[in-house]
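If your schedule permits, I should be very grateful for your opinion on a structural question. The matter concerns a single protein, recorded as an amino acid sequence and a row of backbone structure tokens. Could you please explain, in whatever detail you think fit, how the structure tokens follow from the sequence? I set the record out below, with my sincere thanks for your time.

——
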Amino acid sequence: MVIKVYVSTISFSQEVKKNQQRAVMILESKNIPFIAIDITDPGQEDAKDYMNENAKPKGNNRVPMTPQIFNEAEYCGDFDDLDMANETDSLGEFLKLTEEEKKGIKIGITGILPEDRAKAKRQSETSQLTNGVSASLENEKEASIEATTDETIAPAEPAAEA
């Protein structure tokens, strides 16, 4: 099974861009492997023609709007259909996956249960990631403080009067 998401990287519609990004995000978050096919790429004329012939336009549109989703050559639906399947936890059926393939789909929302939050907190405590600049500045500051406290500081000599 190869899920194919037909997209257009050249679009003047913010809604189309947003829908394409969300479609990709949904599939990635559910661990569903897919291939994104840019129909605006000059080398993808056949793919564009295939999508236009096999996908169904909505409303008054003469051609289908991206994103359009296929399982191999079988049409699954458009973004609205994908979004609805995601909301109703029926992505496996929408994408026409086998029972074995459906087992790999993450179901529901992750990270909201108390044990999920506790696990995330433990992971963040064990992997104290900082960016390189702030980490090096912190190390320099600590080294400077240690050097200052380790040295014996002599009292200042009174200034000579002129």
Summary: The two ends are 92 Å apart (CA to CA). The helical segments are 14-29, 45-54, 79-87, 91-94, 99-102, 114-126, 132-150.
